[in-house]
């Protein structure tokens, strides 16, 4: 079986991540599913963005959580990437997506799709993020037993084991994906922009979360594991064991054919990529 391919923040290698253009391109690329990160806005709306701050991907600085959805819609979320948006991919003002906007795009695609939602922590709203997401999905007609929303299969991911445990009260076990990554100084520095905490304290928290996340996967309290490429290369035996034990593995971020073939050899069933067409083509004609 070829791997299931998810477009990471849309086809974010081509267009600015999380924009309408990136997701429309992902559908044109023939992706099986899309990944998105979600945060809560000041007015309690779910918005598709990766960072807790606006600095890297918009024309302003400050925190996502300090703005309303309407205020975020007024920002330029695509110019930083340097790729202009084709007219058929919407107006500049339509590029920022709420989760609700993303659902409309997926429903219009007219084919079964998978939606992998990553809950971003630490959130200033704590686990109210999870509660808001479940309430939103229920409102949209999501079935908590199958995790289907019409023909869209919804799965949930987080690096935060508390998020997984909280979601386990509402969502099926096989749709919960514990993300795992070895702690890197770069990520620690990025996370530090969230608030006042020392680097040492943050490293301790992140290492503890990783250990707990690995425990959730080992004990199959979640049905899926989401390791990054660096983690897989450092711990191939653990990943192999998870697969042998029946855990589904969703790897990120798989941007080269070499990585994709290495993962397929390992038995990894799902791959998240900034270039879904490239990864899809690597397996085309090889669907045994
Ligand atoms: O798909 C999981 C992956 O997206 C986790 O890392 O930083 O890209 O959200 P990040
Ligand atoms: Ca993500």
Describe, in plain words, how this protein is organized in 3D.
The protein is α/β, with parallel strands linked by helices. The protein has helices at residues 20-28, 69-73, 99-108, 128-140, 161-167, 185-192, 199-218, 229-234, 236-244, 257-266, 276-283, and strands at 4-8, 33-40, 46-48, 113-119, 148-149, 152-158, 176-180, 224-227, 248-251, 270-273. It has one domain (4-286): Phosphatidylinositol (PI) phosphodiesterase (TIM Barrel), CATH 3.20.20. The chain starts with a strand and ends in a 5-residue tail after the last helix. The chain has an 8-stranded parallel β-barrel, surrounded by 7 helices. The mean pLDDT is 95. The protein has 11 helices and 10 strands. The chain is globular and about 50 Å long. Helix 6 (185-192) packs across helix 7.
